[in-house]
Every structure is written in structure tokens, then in C-alpha cells.
Amino acid sequence: MSTGNTHHYAHHFESAEHEYESSKQGVWIFLTSEILMFGVLFVGYMIYHHMYPEMFKYGAKALDWRLGALNTVVLLTSSLTMVLGVHYCQVNNKQKAVMNLAITIACGAIFMVVKYFEYSHKIHAGKLPGMWFTADTHGFENLPLYFSFYFMMTGLHGIHVLAGMCLILWVLIRANRGEFNENYYTPVEGVGLFWHLVDLIWIFLFPLLYLV
Amino acid sequence: MAGAGSNYLNHEKGIMSWLTSRDHKRIGLLYFYTVGFFFLLGGIFAMLIRTELFSAGMQFTPELYNRFMTYHGVIMVFFVIIPGIPAILGNIIMPLQIGARDVAFPLVNLMSWYCYIAGAALGVASLFMGETVLWGIFGGADTGWTFYTPYSIKFSAANITAAFAAFVAGFSSILTGVNFVATVHKLRCPGMTMNRIPLFVWALYATAILQVLATPVVGITVALLAMENIFGIGFFDPELGGDPVLFQHFFWFYSHPAVYIMILPAMGVISELITAFSKKTIFGYTAIAYSSLAIAGVSFLVWGHHMYVSSQSEIAGLVFSILTMFVGVPTAIKLFNWLATLYKGSIQMQSPMLYALGFLFIFTIGGVTGIFLATIATDVHFHDTYFVVAHFHYVMVGGTLMAIMGGALYWFPKITGKMFNESIARMSFVFIFVGFNVTFFPQFILGAMGMPRRYADYLPAFESLNRISSLGSYVIGFGFIIALYVFINGWRKGAPAPANPWGAKTLEWTVPSPPPHENFDKIPTVTAGPYEYR
């Protein structure tokens, strides 16, 4: 590649490096805000878990930890391929970058398919949030609350997985056009940071919901 | 393109060039128009409230009153005061003050305005909803701006939509916050160290941190409230094992810092005004700068003072009470530093300065009555009375609106390139200042006498003070009409403004009025602090 390698940074930055540093910081600040948003659900979980420990223990039994573990492995793998995707963009290897980004999206899709089966199983069994809960509570009268947490936490996370997949698709298309190179890979890295956060949140959700 | 006389207002033409603009100054003006519109709307609701309370007995129906009260709160808080200073004055002035060509992420900045518009559209749509989506003209949310459970979990399309409007508007606030933090970190011009940035920028920086950290909490909280309405998830519903007070905790975890999102930028504006119109270096730059951060920090630890009487434990109440009083320390630091700046300054009583002095007077009363409310023993009596209403209006209206007005007049020549009519502007101050005190001072007395807030009616014994208060609100309304005239008349017919009409020292006054599209022909290099007067 010759002239195509220089990136035209926006007019209010001094250099491409300056733009890269600023954009990366912006993504980090945004991620803090994401953490606070999930934080509310985690705090709510903590409070109700403290109030009804036995009920939460019983509720967790309804989930299949093997499916949760499978999804954990899938997401961890996707984080690896995401990192590789960023790396290959940085070293001008378009083909491998696109391939790794595609695998990342595929992992996200597998995650969502597994989630779909888990959800439909629970919906079928009447284990729905709050007032829609129709299954037997087995004496734990607040059991519906557990499923409220399950659906709200995994639901919000699922929305983030979908959003992440869309974002990765966007950088994949751009990578395929050859827009990224050693001098310019900011969007891939930013999307990567977001994807790692989505992964990280699942790392907390898995033990809290499936293993407690 | 760029030639003599080319500036950000005329370098591109047509409505689309505004709606797709990434220029921070144009986006600031877009915010100015929309926020101004909602301020008018919220003000009309305020006067409808005061009209209902003009006499004992009902003037409107109680249902209608609840809606006036809710929309006055929702509009003024989420659509006027929170975006007010950062999104209008901050957007336009902050990059100029730190010697940048734009904010860090111009596209995100534009997106934030569209989030605001989407939220605002939802808010307006909810006016025509009730329990169902198509309710008719006299619908609307009726929960109050706090959306307290358990009342708000009773299904109502209007309540969900109004809450969702706040959720969407929250994104606009987060995006502004992200943008400003990155801008202050990364886009300062050479020589502009953190200890040389103007105090307005310090205040916006502290505010932006709050916007980023607190807003997502209320976002997810009102989203959960919507889920509660639609799916009955039970987080806040005691019938399903949930806890309604948890909603209050989540809500105030945002909404107390939100109070500082409203007041910190106002304090920043006041710092600029006081020093510019005293022609004197600001006293205690460092103390004022860091007290902004201190207020932002403490603000996350005080939300429990809204729940002294909502089943919170006594020990928690005690801790929150002490922490709340800590807020008084950095606030007083600012106040005394402003007073010290005035001392032996060459004070010029221009209209922006009048608003700044009005701020000092009103905000001090608001701040000190905050200590009354932080004290558990007195709060048990004052809780949910008009004393609280008077207190937060003294802070939010007397504080933030005074600063918005002062700041808007101060930067008006820079933004529009025109001068406004000074004597009419002073008149607007007199009406707003007097009207404000006439409206809200009686409410302290009413609250101390035990008049509960939010009720559509009151005992006949409270009538005379309520009448005074209502009359005062019309005086404020008149004052703002005069202010509107000052702005419109100034923009249309004002004399051309020089680059630096006030003789101020910060960077935005070194560029022509109105500034060129790119702000600076050449990025300046700073060698001294922002307020080198004498």
C-alpha cells in the first residue's frame, strides 16, 4: 500500500495520533457509564439475594449450568478472536482481520442461539418474570423475582451482545474495504473494547445466576 | 468559504446545514432554541399550578393539577435545567475557552441533540396519553417528576412514555458528558494546563463526570419502571417481594447528583461573571476549581437525605445527614471566594453582573435552607412541605436560571455578534429577581406552617401567602417575556459587537464576534492564567 495508508484526521485534532488517543478515551468514558447502568441490576440482585438467599439458591437450580458454561466459553473465545481482529488490522493483514471479526460475530450468534433455547425452555415452563410466572413456586413465594432478575440481567446483556454484533459487522465491512491499516484502526479497537466489556459482564452474570 | 466577514452563522446556509452541523457553536444554538421552547412550556405549566393555588378550593380539577405539576417538573428538570448550561453555553463557549477548534467528538455532539429531540418528542406525546395510548387532549402523566412507586407501577401509557422520555433525554446528557470529559482532557491548546483552564470549564468538567456516572443509573431505573408497568417484574412491587423504597434509592442516586449537574455549571458561569465585572483576578482559583470536584464527589454519597422518613434506618439517616452537611463546605468555599473577588474590585453593574449578584443572594438562601433539610430533626417536620419546594427552587431557579440568564447575556455579543439593549436587560433582572423572591419566600413560611407539597388544594388559613406567591409567579413570567424581547431585539437590531465588549481575559474574547467556523485562525499558545486583570 502506498498513499492510501495515511489517515485524514478531523480538522480539530493536531495529528492522527491525537485523534486516536482522544477517541479511545471517549470509548473508555462511555464504558464507565455502561458499567454504572449494569451496576443498578447488580446492586438490586445483591439486595434481594441478601433478603431471600434460599429462594435465589432454588431459582438457580432451574438454570442449566452446562449451557451457561458453554456460553461462557463461546464468549471468551470471541474475545480472543476480537483481539486478533484488532491485531491483524494493525499489521495490515486484511484477510486474517476479516476472518477473525467474522468468527467473533459467529460466536455472538452462537451465544444468542443458546440463549434463545434457554429462554424458550423457561417461557414454555412458565418460569417468567414477576406477575407472568405460572410455574410451581415450591413454597418459595418470591420465586418470580428470581426470574425477573434472570430475564432483566440476561436480557439487557443480550441487547448488548446484539449491539456488539452489529458494531463488529460495521467494522468488518470497513476492514474488508481495506480502510484499516497500521496508521488507522481506531474503530476496530473501540468496538473491541465494547465487546470485551460485554464479555466481562457475562463473566459476572454466569456465576451469579447459574452457580450461586 | 472562509473570507472576510465569514463566521459560523453564515459560512453555510439553509436549514439542512444547521440540522446536520457538527459545529459545536451551531449545535449549542440548536439546543438554545429547543431548550428555550421547553422553558416556555414548563413556565406555562408553572403558572397554571400557581393559578390553581391562587385561592383555596378548586380552580381546575385535581387530575388536571397533578398533570400540570408533573409536566412542570419533568420539563424543567430533564429538558431545561439539566441540558441548560452545559449543552447551550458549554457547547458554544467551552471549546473557545480552551483554545480548541471543536469538541472532541462533533458527530456525537450532534447525536446528543437528536437524543434530546427524541426524548422531548416522547415527552410531548405523553401529554396526549392516559391509561391507554390514545387518550385525548386532557391526558398526561400524573406521578410527579420523581415517578415514585408504588403509584407509578399501576399501568399507565402516559407514565411509561414520560419516564421513557427521561430515559432517552438521559442519553443526550451522557453523550454530552463523554464529549466534554474527553475534550477537556485532550483538546486544550498549548500552554493551557489544567491549572489555567477557566473556572467555567472546571465546572463543566466536574458536571460531565457526574453526567457520565449518574445518568445511566436513572436510565436503567426508569427502564425497569417501564418493565414493571409492562411485565410486572416486581422489583419495586411489595406483592411480588420487591421493595418500593429501592426505587427511591436508585432514583435519588442519580437525581441527587443531578442537582449538582444543574448547579455546578451555574457556579462556573458565576465565577466568570464575577471576575470579569470586578476587573480583578479571581480570588482562590485553585480552591474554586477543586471545590467543583469536591461537590461532584460528595454528591454521590448523599442521596439518602431524601429518605429520612421512608423506612431508612436511623444510622443510615445519621450518616447521610452528616455527609449532606459536607456539601456546604465546598459550596461556602466558592461563595467566600466570589465575595473576596468582589472586595476592592472595580465593579461594573452591567446586567450580567446583576444576575450574578442576584445569584449570590438567592443561592445563599437556598444553600443555607438546605442545611435545615439535611438536619434530621428539622427535616422530619419540613419533609414533603412547601419548605422543600421553596428550598429547591431557591437553588435551581434562583441559582441555575439566574446563571443561565447572566451567562446568556454575557456571551450574547460573542454568540450573535450583536449588542443587546442594556437598560431593558436590567429591567428584566428587576422583574425576575423581585418576582422570584415574592413567589418563593412565602413558601418557606407556608412549609414551616405545615402546608404539604403537591396537593391540589389547601386549608383556607394558607390562602393569603399563597396569593402573594401566585402573584409573584406572574411577575417572574413577565420578567422572562422582557428577557425574551431583549434577546430577539438585540439579535435583530443590536449594534455590531466588538470582539471583547466586556474587557474580559479568557480566550473566547480574543476571536471576532461571532467567531469564525474554525474558531481560531491559528491555535493560540497560552502563557498565563485565565484571569490576569490586576
Description of the structure:
The complex is a heterodimer of chains A (212) and B (534). Chain A contains six helices and no strands. Chain A has 212 residues and is an all-alpha fold. Chain A has a single domain (14-211), classed as Cytochrome c oxidase, subunit III, four-helix bundle (Four Helix Bundle (Hemerythrin (Met), subunit A)). Chain A is elongated and about 65 Å long. The two termini of chain B are 40 Å apart. In chain B, 57% of the residues are buried. Chain B has one domain: Cytochrome C Oxidase, Chain A, CATH 1.20.210.10. In chain B, 66% of the residues lie in helices and 0% in strands. Chain B is mostly helical.
CATH architecture of chain B: Up-down Bundle
CATH topology of chain B: Cytochrome C Oxidase, Chain A
Secondary-structure content class of chain A: mainly alpha
CATH architecture of chain A: Up-down Bundle
How many separate structural domains of chain B?
1
Q: Output the helix-strand order of chain A.
A: HHHHHH
Poorly predicted regions of chain B are none
Q: What is the CATH topology assignment of chain A? A: Four Helix Bundle (Hemerythrin (Met), subunit A)
Level of helix content of chain B?
Answer: 55-70%
Write the CATH homologous superfamily of chain B. Cytochrome c oxidase-like, subunit I domain
**Rounded to an integer, what's the Rg of chain A over CA atoms?**
20 Å
